[in-house]
Amino acid sequence: MEPRSDCPINAAVEVLGDRWSLLVLRDVIFSDRRYFRALLTASPEGIASNILADRLVRLVEAGLLTRGTAARGQRAQYSLTEAGIQTLPILVALGTWSLTWRPATNDLYARQQLLRDEGPAYIEALMDDLRTRHLTPHSA
């Protein structure tokens, strides 16, 4: 996918700039939802199946997710790539901004406060855990 301009922010927005792509990544990263059905049914925002299918294709094409091969009748598992794992600090930054400027409630608010308060070492440890679960052969 060729970006419309040489601006790095534009290039990132073209991949991550719609709300559904970020929410799919959120669900894979924080809730370990790695199958289509889990992503569809557990989305609190109520993503439609056609939108989810489109975003999964886009995220795979952009190199943020991989789609495992599935035999007939089996479900395909999605895994983060290193580029997908590297979106974790972006999601944390967006959530931290939201703590100050947007309303939030309950467990999700508490999770974001934890991510903010624990700082960069905690985020790096989470990224290492994601690498173990998504990038190593035994995690499939």
Notes on the protein architecture:
This protein has 140 residues and is mainly α. It is built from eight helices and two strands. It has a two-stranded antiparallel sheet. Helix 6 (88-101) crosses helix 7.
Layout of helices and strands:
Elements: H1 8-16, H2 19-31, H3 36-41, H4 49-61, E1 65-67, E2 78-80, H5 82-85, H6 88-101, H7 106-118, H8 120-135
Antiparallel strand pairs: 1-2
* Residues in β-strands, percent: under 5%
Q: Which blocks of ≥5 consecutive residues have pLDDT under 50?
A: none
Order of helices and strands: HHHHEEHHHH
Computed over alpha carbons, the radius of gyration is 15 Å
The rounded distance between the terminal residues' Cα atoms is 28 Å
* Order of the strands making up the biggest sheet: 1-2
Produce a short descriptive summary:
The chain has 140 residues and is mainly alpha-helical. It contains 8 helices and 2 strands. Helix 6 crosses helix 7.
Keywords:
140 residues, mainly alpha, two-stranded antiparallel ribbon, 63% helix, 4% strand
